[in-house]
Structures are given as structure tokens and as C-alpha cells.
């Protein structure tokens, strides 16, 4: 008899676990509770949950060199949004390693640092989960907190139709984007689509211009376009010097420049990412820890 009861209890536990896994995304009330836990989150579409991020990997805003115009424009747009004023979705596109992602995270931190009222929330949605964006927006609708959604390295390849979910979520859908939510994305592609994909549309579609227009219209949903281009040698050295100054790296200025230029030559490029990689190598050789 006791054996039958044990089996029944085990069966009920498995049923309860299955029901919990299949319960779907969390309710708006649960989302509200999650938003109170931190200022930054990662959206986990599989479980429909917002995972708090206590320590965001980011650089101070004043360390981002060579992107002054982009920095000031994005900072002003974000401040307006945080204050409840009209603001635009932003697409940061262009050269690799030039600080697109770093700028989004740094601007978020800077806006919150200077705010007296409620803090701006930052939610990162992974590229592979972009199709779940309408589900996330449904949960965030009605929240009183201003929320900045962020997708890093956003792009779409052949046969990828999730861009349609993004188009409808940003503008054009019946529900529309909640007024308390703004969307920032970074991409190496200005129109988020590879050139060969657009050329294939032109060659195979009945009406080539309309087929390409559908793909390109996604980027039109972003009212703010910020381009990032390969940096000059002067900008690259300014980044290096700024990092060295900030972290207190004791090295002769001429030697610092010479080593930095040699490093960029071996990498075959100059960018913010290359500059940071050099600084990590330099700090390690000098026995200095980077906080």
C-alpha cells in the first residue's frame, strides 16, 4: 500500500513539474516584481523570465573616445526618454569594435547616475530570441518604469523571418510599442540585411523593388541612425592614452604610442576593441590589475 502511495506522489510531482514548465511566460505582475530587483536584466525567452544583472560589464562614458557626436546624440535621446518625453528607437551601425555596445551600456549608466527619480531599466534581448519580442512587450505594457530594450549585433540572414516580428513590434502592429519602452540595437549592417540577400531578392522576386523595400523598411523603424566608422590613428592613440591614464599605467608616453601602433599593425586594424585588448596586454606586462 505504501509503495502505491509513493508511486502516486512521484507521479503527481512529475505532473506538477510538467505543468509548471508549460505554464508559459510570466504574468505582468511577475514582470513588475522582477523589474524591482535591479536596473539591468537579460530576457530569457524560453522561460519567459527577466534575469537580474547585478554587475553590468561596461566602460565609463568618458573613456569612449572618437565617438563624441554619437555619444552626445544617444545620451540626449536617452535622457528625454527617461524623463518621459518623446524619443526615437536607435540603430547603432557600422565598423566592428568601435564601441557601439559599450556606448549603449555607458549611456544607460550615465543617465541613471544623474537621475533623481526612478531609474531607467535596461533589458537585453538576445538576437536569437528576437521573435519573442512581442511576448516581452506584452509583459512590459502598463509598467510605470521607463524601459530600454537592447539587442546587440542584430542582423538577419536568408530565410530568417523573425525581422517581421521586430517590424510589427516597433511600429505597425495593432498593439504598437508601449510608450514606456524604447528599443536600441547595434549592428554591423546599416539595413540589418546582408548585401547578397538583397541582391538575391532583386534577381528572384516578381517585383524586385518591392521585395527589397520590405527588407529595408525594417531599418526605417529606427528614427535615430548613428554610424560608427573605422577610427583614425589619432583617435586610436587617444583611446590608448585615455585608458592608460584612467588605470594609472606607468609608462613613457613615447613608448606607449610606439607599442600601441605596433599592436595595431599586428592585428591589421585600429578600433576601440583593439585598443582595449592592447591595454589588457600592457597592464598584464606591467603587473597592474584592471578594476
Q: Strand portion, in percent?
A: 5-15%
Q: How far apart, in Å, are the first and last alpha carbons?
A: 63 Å
The Cα radius of gyration reads 23 Å
| Overall morphology | globular
Q: Largest sheet, order of strands side by side?
A: 2-1-4-5-6-3-7
Query: Ranges with pLDDT <50 over ≥5 residues?
Result: 18-25
Known CATH architecture of the largest domain: 3-Layer(aba) Sandwich
- CATH level 3 topology of the largest domain: Rossmann fold
Using DSSP, what is the number of strands?
A: 7
Structural description of this entry:
The protein has 291 residues and is α/β, with parallel strands linked by helices. The protein is built from eleven helices and seven strands. Helix 3 (68-82) crosses helix 4 and helix 9 (233-246) crosses helix 10. The longest helix has 20 residues, at 2-21.
Core attributes:
single chain, 291 residues, alpha/beta, Rossmann fold, 2 domains
What would a concise description of this structure say?
The protein is 47% helix and 12% strand.
Amino acid at each position: 500500500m505504501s509503495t502505491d502511495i509513493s508511486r502516486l506522489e512521484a507521479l503527481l510531482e512529475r505532473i506538477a513539474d510538467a505543468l509548471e514548465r508549460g505554464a508559459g511566460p510570466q504574468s505582468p505582475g511577475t514582470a513588475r516584481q522582477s523589474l524591482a530587483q535591479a536596473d539591468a536584466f537579460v530576457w530569457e525567452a524560453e522561460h519567459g523570465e527577466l534575469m537580474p544583472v547585478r554587475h553590468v560589464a561596461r566602460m565609463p562614458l568618458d573613456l569612449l573616445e572618437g565617438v563624441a557626436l554619437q555619444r552626445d546624440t544617444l545620451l540626449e535621446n536617452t535622457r528625454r526618454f527617461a524623463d518621459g518625453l518623446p524619443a526615437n528607437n536607435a540603430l547603432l551601425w557600422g565598423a566592428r569594435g568601435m564601441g557601439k555596445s559599450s556606448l549603449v551600456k555607458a549611456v544607460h549608466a550615465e543617465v541613471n547616475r544623474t537621475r533623481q527619480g526612478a531609474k531607467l531599466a535596461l533589458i537585453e534581448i538576445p538576437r536569437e530570441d528576437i521573435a519573442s519580442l512581442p511576448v516581452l512587450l506584452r509583459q512590459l505594457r502598463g509598467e510605470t518604469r521607463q524601459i530600454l530594450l537592447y539587442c546587440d549585433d542584430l542582423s538577419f540572414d536568408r530565410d530568417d523571418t523573425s525581422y517581421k516580428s521586430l517590424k510589427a513590434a516597433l511600429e505597425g502592429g495593432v498593439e504598437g510599442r508601449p510608450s514606456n519602452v524604447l528599443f536600441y540595437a547595434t549592428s554591423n549592417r546599416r539595413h540589418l540585411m546582408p548585401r547578397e540577400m538583397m541582391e538575391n531578392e532583386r534577381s528572384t522576386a516578381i517585383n524586385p523593388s518591392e521585395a527589397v523595400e520590405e527588407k529595408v523598411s525594417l531599418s526605417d523603424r529606427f528614427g535615430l541612425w548613428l554610424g560608427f566608422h573605422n577610427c583614425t590613428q589619432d583617435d586610436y592613440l587617444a583611446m590608448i592614452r585615455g585608458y592608460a591614464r584612467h588605470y594609472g599605467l606607468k609608462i613613457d608616453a613615447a613608448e606607449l604610442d610606439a607599442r600601441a601602433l605596433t599592436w595595431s599593425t599586428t592585428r591589421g586594424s585600429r578600433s576601440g576593441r583593439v585598443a582595449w585588448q592592447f591595454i589588457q596586454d600592457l597592464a598584464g606586462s606591467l603587473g597592474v590589475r584592471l578594476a
